[in-house]
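User: For a reading group we're discussing how well predicted structures match intuition. Take CTP synthase. Before you show the prediction, I'll give you the sequence so everyone sees exactly what went in.
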Amino acid sequence: MKYVLVTGGVVSGLGKGVTASSIGLILKACGLRVTSIKIDPYLNTDAGTMSPFEHGEVYVLDDGGEVDLDLGNYERFLDIKLTRDNNITTGKIYQSVIDKERRGDYLGKTVQVVPHITDAIQEWIERVAVIPVDGKEGPPDVCVIELGGTIGDIESMPFIEALGQFSYRVGAGNFCLIHVSLVPVLSVVGEQKTKPTQHSVRGLRSLGLTPNILACRSTTELDENVKDKISRFCHVLVDNIITLYDVSNIWRIPLLLRDQKAHEAILRVLNLKGVAREPALGEWTSRAELCDKLHEPVRVAMVGKYTGLSDAYLSVLKALVHASVPCHRKLCIDWIAASDLECETARENLENYRNAWKLLKGADAILVPGGFGDRGVEGKILAARYARENRIPFLGICLGMQIAVIEFARSILGLLDANSTEFDPNTQNPCVIFMPEGSKTHMGGTMRLGSRRTYFQVADCKSAKLYGNQSFVDERHRHRYEVNPDMVQQFENAGLSFTGKDESGRRMEIVELPNHPYFVGVQFHPEFKSRPGKPSALFLGLIAAATGQLETFLKKGVPKTWGLSNGTSGLKSHRYVNGSKLANGSLDGIYSKGNGIHV
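Assistant: Thanks. Here is the predicted 3D structure of CTP synthase, as structure tokens, for the group to look at:
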């Protein structure tokens, strides 16, 4: 087994996740089988209980693991299926060691950070690295490990020590360390400054790790004299110094690495030169170039609770990108804080209220993503009502589906107090209820999580056709509440169709309005399985409906893959929060002149 460790220095948010994903992709393009591990030094057992404002979205895996959003990046770039164990946290490591101590596994010894915690980290890495994640038998060839945080963080120290021991134990030819650092350009003089990188590498070496390759983040390509200086002071070969500079879209990063022969440097360190081929990135290159040529826009109103941080909806954004390209449209996101659509905002801040509604009414499609808590719920209900009454393409995900059902109950069934028991425990018409198997005392890991099967109840419906007329589909879930099965017949009698249900037939998974151009709600999260070249069926349906192409897609059938249908070129973001546009740039990631989304 070969290991590639990616660390970061100077500042956080440099794009280690994109770098690690791009490294994995280019190694896969060389014919190697690749897996990934993300190390998060926080004490939480997993990301499940963390606020999206604190840490971005919680990404859900097939096995129900609630993990860091970087694992979503790995899955999208490498088209693999990871497990919850591919995300290591301090909480998981300490819990496993404490459990062993309680069982008496340490035979009465004093349990310490060294060797017990560090050994546990190394054992975890070795165990997970051999798990196949690409659907084939046998262990992968290379494991790319990303260490979260920045070198020097106190919470990372046990992992740094463990990885230092690990590199020595597996041997020089089996371990490659890539350090991502910053080379800032001072606007006053326009000079690329190497001192931050020098200090970062010095700190890394003082902790027992020596970088083989430096990936230097900068706005422009490094000058040769700057590379020479970094090489001299950091003791890294000039050929092993890579520039990660601003590019037009995030899908060009693997191409940037290839063009600078980063793969050759990695293969040299890992003694794989005779095994791997030249990277086959023809299709990826075509995608990146195609994305730069898109100009005709499609506007999607994102009505949510966490619109102040785009990372909170990262997988949704990526799924929209994947769906927009085969429709030959440039995706434009209008961020709308759901609470700004409510009457209370009209009384308190009329300008915010008017701006929010102006954006909503100017959208080609409306998307209400998942979320928790009652803030902004009434605004989301108003958005669903506007989409239903004005025949605007609508997609509701998780909570978005539930509020669509609540809106239908209020407007069509006349149940004015209809609500979810999450928001009104005493409602007389509980359209959405707490699931019987859920826990009301423990939050972490107690939801309905992971891949679950949905069976189509109606063959002649949009969702079934978009999924290729299959009898069932497996999608990932993350929810505590569900549509009240006792009210389903009442809804269907009034024209709302529950076209997808679970195996019991009592849990509603997909809801549609048959006489609407595209009004779909799903209890699951289809964004988590969207891939470059393989857009999520329901996101594709939303964009196709918004651009007048849905009927064509439904008649011809939706292909399982789209050859040149991926990228983020020109993905414009008009971030709307508290009544004003805060940002207008490309959602191309930390490597572009965008708004800083790093995936």
